[in-house]
Amino acid sequence: MIFRDGQSGTPVPDLEGMQRAIFAAWCFWGVEAAFREIEGVVATRVGYTGGTTTDPSYEEVCSDRTGHAEAVQVWFDPDVVSYGELLDTFWSIHDPTTRDRQGWDFGSQYRSAIFFRDAGQERAAIGSRDERQHSVSKPIVTEIVPALPFYDAEDYHQRYYEEHGGAFCATTVR
Fold this sequence. Notes:
By secondary structure, the chain is of the alpha+beta class. The chain has helices at 28-36, 58-62, 83-92, 119-133, 160-163; strands at residues 3-5, 10-12, 19-24, 41-49, 69-76, 101-102, 105-106, 113-116, 143-146, 151-152. The protein is built from 5 helices and 10 strands, in the order E-E-E-H-E-H-E-H-E-E-E-H-E-E-H.
């Protein structure tokens, strides 16, 4: 089976046998761009999760009234890249000690969060957070919570970095 990725219609590989992770760190454009650079990541989708409404729009999420975070679903081949390696990338692309803000982007939709899909991901996320805490002076505020329904963002947000020649969020990929 071939899936199409967002507005570009680019074919992506069959996702059977792939694992999925969900991360929120700041504007989802930059987070998606960082994960797409990793060998073993086979597909991504940006969207909204962690909130209280069904199928919110970008405007609703930005209103800071839905409780959703801008997030990225990452499908990866565990034979090529581990969940732990994805966590390393997650920690390296943002400041996990800043609540609801990264650079000029602020609001609860920009919070730092790991949405785990099973007990193994939960243990790995907590362990990596605890390990990372030793290397920073302020408390890490990243939420580590069970995955909730994920709603795809509008097509124009998908692969934004690739489609718009490198201009994306106020915070840059570190």
